[in-house]
Amino acid sequence: MQGMKKLGVGAFALFSTLSARADYTWNFPEPVTPMALDTLHVHNKFMLITAVIFVVVLAIMIYSIITHRKSKGYKPVADKAPSTTVEIFWTLIPFVILLLIDFVIMGIPAYHSVVMMEDTRDQSTMVIKITGSQWRWQYEYLDGDAKGIKFVSNLATSDGQLHNTEDKGEHYLLEVDNPLVLPVGEKVRILMTASDVLHNWWVPQFGSSRVAVPGFIRETWVQVEREGIYRGQCKELCGKGHGYMPVVVNAISKEQFAEWAGKKQAEQQAANDVKEMSKDDLLAQGKTVYEKNCAVCHQVSGAGLPPAFPALTGSKIATGPIFGADGKYAKDSHLDRVLNGKGVMPAWKTTLNDTEIAAVITYERNALGNTAAVDAVLQPAQVKAARE
Amino acid sequence: MSTTTVAHHDEHHDHPTGIMRWLTTTNHKDIGTMYLTFSLIMFLVGGSMILGIRAELFKPGLQLMNPEFFNQLIGVHALIMIFAALMPAATGFANWMLPLQIGAPDMALPRLNNWGFWILPPSAILLTLPFTLALFGVGDGALATGWTFYPPLSVQGGIGVDFAIFAVHLLGISSVLGSINIIVTIYNMRAPGMTLMKMPMFAWGWLITAFLLIATIPVLAGAVTMLLTDRHFGTHFFDAAGGGDPIMFQHLFWFFGHPEVYILLLPVWGFIPQILQTFSRKPMYGYKAQVYSLWAIGALAVVVWAHHFFTAGMPVPALLYFMYSTMAISLPLAVLFYCWIRTMWKGSMSFETPMLFTVGWIILFGIGGLTGLVLADVAADAQYHNSYFVVAHFHYTLFAGGIMGIMAGVYYWLPKMTGHMYNEKLGKLHFWLTAISFNVTFIPQFFVGLAGMPRRIPDYALQFAEFNMISSIGAFVLGLSQLLFVYNIVSCARGGKKATDQVWEGAQGLEWTLPSPPPYHSFTEQPVVK
């Protein structure tokens, strides 16, 4: 009895949460680019056609199932099998109907959509490059107002939310630290590549998605027509973090974009100015960088997930010397591994700036249970020198 | 002389008993039974894996497993369901029924037949062993790339990938051996008078399947071998840094992978019309049209592969070619649907379990086919691709179109195989539970897919929560309903009402002229077909 009651309350709670969050979507989300609008039209039209086919055929079947039953004493007609000419005539009817649907009603608009989707260059006014890597997106503006701006976009949802120790926020799993910023009304040509495995940059409201292939450049384009924040996800299985590399695009007016670009460029300039930092500052910044970029694999505690992802705590690389006798960083040293990567470990030299690399290395050598005896503190200048 | 073989003692052989009977058997029915049993066991194994997944996806957040384990389960689930559940089930039917239907004493190559089966259990073990090894600290678990093995992720992966590569090799060898046997049997052992155009439709379905397998399995074997050498021997087939291309793997894989869909479905398209004519009590409509359609689909199957990765980037002419050729598959398929329904039309239908499954199959597979038609559209595919819409679509084709078809076949032939009738009430209950819970599971997946939920993610945004919860509930009902199926089969094998030779009132064909169960060497004298 008690059990039943509990079950009843549980079921009630379940259904009330269902209705409380009843923002169901039964179709593609609202399109905001010409491509997505076209895709939605194509999809709706095709769905209507297939639904009509389905309903008509089903109705005929159901009529037959109800009428032509043995239990109603219905006697089977004698189909003269094989009666070739008549049969061929009848079987050609569905053939011809589908021929018409496939290659005329569906085929012609489909042709125009493909041509439109693949035309990345005509009238495009700016170019950006998107690089997918495990498990973050890197954006780079190649021309125009924002030329030279380059940043990494990471998942911003807290670990506590993922593991159910905190309440989940509104944009759970679909929020990032640095969204891609695009001006509305501009046709933006997107060059897509990856640094490790395949990824796929997808915003459902944009209607375009393209696989990012390491070692190759693929192209697509978007032209966002309305200001707003648009969210999507990686949709090519790319390892354990596949569910945790969202895409967020902030579409703003052209004026705001120019303003944003100017500010961002100045910020980036400042960050690139290398200056001497105290150990405490390095540790503080290093902790942030570490938890954002490294903790996915090496864990917040530094324990790693052996054998795929080694522990940093007590690691020879993270405690051993960085610089050789000649003053240059040694092969397979801590700095070498972070800059150039090896195997599954990505190369960070293109993703992190000098200060961030210096900070994270200093953090790894002095926290996570490590106390490096030599080269305990690394300065941004040393990283800058190492790059050259 | 042992007691177990006395019943079958119509030949002057001493058959070994116990485990040796099964290990050494060259009898087509014994081997067929082993294939079907193996398939049923692996169906339950693969099903339990996906219930783990659905439990994790019941609500947002990580509850039961980490993402690594999640990725392993999805890939191994697919490989098991495709290679170890669906394909062996079809091969099991071929072994059991082809000799009976074409009036032969046995399969043409009995020893090869035995070997073909006994390769399967080791490969299933290979596929799942990494899970166990990981428990003992060896390696990091099974294949975590999805069943498609896409590099560079599969080059990066752990020992699970190597295990899966070798498992796929063995499974492939087994399929090719089975195919050779079926082709040889069909071409050489038909009863006098049975011309190709008088063959039962099931034989046609399997003949085309066998040719497709022989044409495409070597390509898959080659592709995964290249992957193996990329992983361990320093080649760069799929690595741009060494002049290779990761997308080339996708071309090779889907050159096998798309025909694979028809490999799974053609045997079913073979026996579905036979079930329809039995329970409609009139001959199947458009035999010739159906045969030509099966050939057309077999031929189209090998020229449309790239529609599985439109978003990987292709020149416009290639996109258009693969789009239009894919749409063309709907033409012969429309003819088939027409013939199936026309077979029912003005028949004298009764709805025993096999017929229920067949009618449900036509409707649900129809949904799979129609959603496939819209997926062919390149522009819209950018949205559907790798979303849950695709997951729902291929479960309508492979679960409804594949497994529910196989279930129709099981209920149809079980009385012939065992000599007993199964429990009709339980059978019908099994059908309704399966059909309803299947839709409860997968209809919501169409909607979350359209709304933008990618597949293969261990956790999802809050807007997808309701549909995922419904889908998980459906999946658990679907999974548990299959226990009825197992119970019904086991109790039918052990006893029950005696089945007649013809079993079904309207059944036509040579297999129904033999006693139920048929004698050990099916036809000792060849029947003559007029």
UniProtKB/TrEMBL annotation, chain A:
<dbReference type="InterPro" id="IPR011759">
    <property type="entry name" value="Cyt_c_oxidase_su2_TM_dom"/>
</dbReference>
<comment type="similarity">
    <text>Belongs to the cytochrome c oxidase subunit 2 family.</text>
</comment>
<dbReference type="InterPro" id="IPR045187">
    <property type="entry name" value="CcO_II"/>
</dbReference>
<keyword id="KW-0408">Iron</keyword>
<dbReference type="InterPro" id="IPR036909">
    <property type="entry name" value="Cyt_c-like_dom_sf"/>
</dbReference>
<protein>
    <recommendedName>
        <fullName>Cytochrome c oxidase subunit 2</fullName>
        <ecNumber>7.1.1.9</ecNumber>
    </recommendedName>
</protein>
<feature type="domain" description="Cytochrome oxidase subunit II copper A binding">
    <location>
        <begin position="123"/>
        <end position="263"/>
    </location>
</feature>
<dbReference type="InterPro" id="IPR008972">
    <property type="entry name" value="Cupredoxin"/>
</dbReference>
<dbReference type="InterPro" id="IPR009056">
    <property type="entry name" value="Cyt_c-like_dom"/>
</dbReference>
<dbReference type="InterPro" id="IPR001505">
    <property type="entry name" value="Copper_CuA"/>
</dbReference>
<feature type="domain" description="Cytochrome c">
    <location>
        <begin position="281"/>
        <end position="368"/>
    </location>
</feature>
<dbReference type="InterPro" id="IPR014222">
    <property type="entry name" value="Cyt_c_oxidase_su2"/>
</dbReference>
<keyword id="KW-0186">Copper</keyword>
<keyword id="KW-0249">Electron transport</keyword>
<keyword id="KW-0349">Heme</keyword>
<feature type="signal peptide">
    <location>
        <begin position="1"/>
        <end position="22"/>
    </location>
</feature>
<keyword id="KW-0679">Respiratory chain</keyword>
<keyword id="KW-1278">Translocase</keyword>
<keyword id="KW-0732">Signal</keyword>
<keyword id="KW-0813">Transport</keyword>
<feature type="transmembrane region" description="Helical">
    <location>
        <begin position="46"/>
        <end position="67"/>
    </location>
</feature>
<dbReference type="InterPro" id="IPR036257">
    <property type="entry name" value="Cyt_c_oxidase_su2_TM_sf"/>
</dbReference>
TrEMBL record, chain B:
<keyword id="KW-0812">Transmembrane</keyword>
<feature type="domain" description="Cytochrome oxidase subunit I profile">
    <location>
        <begin position="22"/>
        <end position="530"/>
    </location>
</feature>
<feature type="transmembrane region" description="Helical">
    <location>
        <begin position="31"/>
        <end position="53"/>
    </location>
</feature>
<protein>
    <recommendedName>
        <fullName>Cytochrome c oxidase subunit 1</fullName>
        <ecNumber>7.1.1.9</ecNumber>
    </recommendedName>
</protein>
<feature type="transmembrane region" description="Helical">
    <location>
        <begin position="426"/>
        <end position="447"/>
    </location>
</feature>
<comment type="similarity">
    <text>Belongs to the heme-copper respiratory oxidase family.</text>
</comment>
<feature type="transmembrane region" description="Helical">
    <location>
        <begin position="159"/>
        <end position="189"/>
    </location>
</feature>
<keyword id="KW-0349">Heme</keyword>
<comment type="pathway">
    <text>Energy metabolism; oxidative phosphorylation.</text>
</comment>
<feature type="transmembrane region" description="Helical">
    <location>
        <begin position="73"/>
        <end position="94"/>
    </location>
</feature>
<dbReference type="InterPro" id="IPR023616">
    <property type="entry name" value="Cyt_c_oxase-like_su1_dom"/>
</dbReference>
<keyword id="KW-0679">Respiratory chain</keyword>
<keyword id="KW-1133">Transmembrane helix</keyword>
<dbReference type="InterPro" id="IPR036927">
    <property type="entry name" value="Cyt_c_oxase-like_su1_sf"/>
</dbReference>
<keyword id="KW-0479">Metal-binding</keyword>
<feature type="transmembrane region" description="Helical">
    <location>
        <begin position="353"/>
        <end position="376"/>
    </location>
</feature>
<dbReference type="InterPro" id="IPR033944">
    <property type="entry name" value="Cyt_c_oxase_su1_dom"/>
</dbReference>
<dbReference type="Pfam" id="PF00115">
    <property type="entry name" value="COX1"/>
</dbReference>
<keyword id="KW-1003">Cell membrane</keyword>
<comment type="function">
    <text>Cytochrome c oxidase is the component of the respiratory chain that catalyzes the reduction of oxygen to water. Subunits 1-3 form the functional core of the enzyme complex. CO I is the catalytic subunit of the enzyme. Electrons originating in cytochrome c are transferred via the copper A center of subunit 2 and heme A of subunit 1 to the bimetallic center formed by heme A3 and copper B.</text>
</comment>
<feature type="transmembrane region" description="Helical">
    <location>
        <begin position="396"/>
        <end position="414"/>
    </location>
</feature>
<feature type="transmembrane region" description="Helical">
    <location>
        <begin position="322"/>
        <end position="341"/>
    </location>
</feature>
